[in-house]
Design a protein that fits this description.
The chain is mostly helical. Helices cover about 45% and strands about 5% of the residues.
């Protein structure tokens, strides 16, 4: 499997990814931003995008969804399922950290539709994670923050992102 058009692996080679599992691949927009997550979008990020905000979002999404490798498996979990062990307070803390990604996305001027989908992902994460016993398992599988980061990167990489100010926040 090759990276999407306009993308390269973190080390710049195309053969590197053949030996690396898909979940461990890191793609970057050529000359722009490197993410730990595989993003299925083809375009390049506009030069005006705040890459510092993207790096912060990437760090938060990684910490919440995939920062801990479970030994003997290919499974990664983050702080989100761990916080779920604290009844109510853990779910609220996780929701607050997840909403940080939505706030950063709004400052990057993604569309209202993208922001609403991100909020829906967070709501599903909170609702599923708050279920007794199965909530921790749900949080381990439903990685809302990774999904939201992918959604933001895909929205920013759209060819018409710079030409649709009427559908975006803050423009």
């Amino acid at each position: 499997v090759s990276p999407p058009a306009g993308w390269a692996t973190a080390d710049g080679s195309s053969n590197h990814q053949d030996s690396v599992p898909r979940s461990a691949r890191t793609y970057r927009m050529t000359g722009q931003f490197e993410s730990r997550f595989d993003v299925a979008s083809g375009g390049e990020l506009p030069a005006t995008v705040d890459t510092g905000a993207l790096r912060r979002m990437d760090a938060v999404a990684y910490a919440l969804d995939e920062s801990v490798h479970i030994p003997g498996t290919s499974v990664r979990v983050g702080l989100d399922p761990t916080l779920g062990f604290l009844p109510a307070a853990g779910d609220l803390a996780s929701a607050g950290l997840s909403l940080y990604l939505v706030a950063e996305a709004a400052t990057l001027s993604v569309s209202h539709a993208t922001l609403l989908r991100m909020i829906l992902n967070v709501a599903i994460d909170v609702a599923g994670g708050s279920l007794p016993f199965v909530g921790t398992l749900f949080d381990s599988i439903w990685k809302a923050n990774r999904r939201n980061l992918r959604r933001v990167l895909a929205a920013l990489a759209e060819p018409n992102f710079e030409t649709q100010p009427d559908t975006r926040v803050g423009r």
